[in-house]
Amino acid sequence: MSQSGLLPVADGQSIYWEEWGAPDGVPALYLHGGPGGGLGRSGYRHRFDLERTRVIGLEQRGCGRSLPHASDPSVSLGENTTQHLIDDIEALRAARGVESWIVNGVSWGSTLALAYAQARPERVLGVVLFAVTTTRRREIDWITEGVGAIFPEAWDRFASFAEDACIGYARGEGRVVEAYARLVNSADAAVREAASREWALWEDTHVSIGTGGIDTPERTGSPPAVRRDPRWEDDAFRLAFVRLTTHYWSHDGFLDPPLLENMAVLEGIPAVLIHGRRDVSGPAVTAWELHRRWPGSTLVLDEQDGHGGTSMVEAWSAANTRLLDGDRRRC
């Protein structure tokens, strides 16, 4: 069974949603990464037992098939914050007649899943997080600057572009994420285009380790060839992704207080946290700290994968099966 549609929500927004699996199954929500990543080709549904699960995914404000689209520079992001996304999730839950559900989140989606669970714990049967993030400033500064210690030549290019293009930015004297947020909102289309391409190249670089994203150099001493995500060739996807990501990251995910300071409200809700040891974009310490503050959570650290990979996906499927089999909260 599959259904899809556009749900009108607040602020003139319409949210794309889709539903898969058993109409009478245990409801499960899927929250994509990014921000701005969208649902893609809906491969996420294969992480669930569709004979026993009613899987619902949505594309967050401004991306995918949701309207209006953030690739349009005239579309304001003023009504695009984590609280707005939580309200949209609640609107979708009510519209689809769901009382409570298992909440899944991937990468940025794991931050949104946590934020939603903290805001609406009574609606959550269990949580599965994949490539765990909480979008603290420390995490953002690492992924946009600190990880340059591992990819110094790539980060030099990334920062140099911002220094050349963004008046008022100099490395060491400001946050590069804020510089890119200004650049992708420039009135100059050429500036927006170039900035989004530089951000996309940096994104591909720092997620490459542990995901099969680097090709072996053909000669000693040559730099590795980073495999490019084909989605970047879609201008609308790339511009919306970078605009939304820099918007959320430059505001620390619109999360005050940080999620790790509000974990008490999740007591009694089971969770499985899946993370790759080789994830240099988001070091495993975040998943570890979350696990330590969440009694009843299970931490799965995959020694071979990075920011996603085959064995992590297998753990993701197993986690949802475990919650289906009874290890979930009774609301």
From TrEMBL:
UniProt-listed SUPFAM superfamilies: alpha/beta-Hydrolases (SSF53474)
Superkingdom of the organism of origin: Bacteria
Transmembrane segments: none
Molecular function GO labels: hydrolase activity
Domain named AB hydrolase-1: residues: 29-307
Keyword Protease: yes
Assigned EC number: 3.4.11.5
Subcellular location: Cytoplasm
Protein name: Proline iminopeptidase
Keyword Cytoplasm: yes
Primary localisation category: cytoplasm
EC class name: hydrolase
Pfam families on file: Abhydrolase_1
Family designation: Belongs to the peptidase S33 family.
UniProt organism field: Brachybacterium kimchii
Catalysed reaction, written as an equation: Release of N-terminal proline from a peptide
Alphabetic keyword roster: Aminopeptidase, Cytoplasm, Hydrolase, Protease
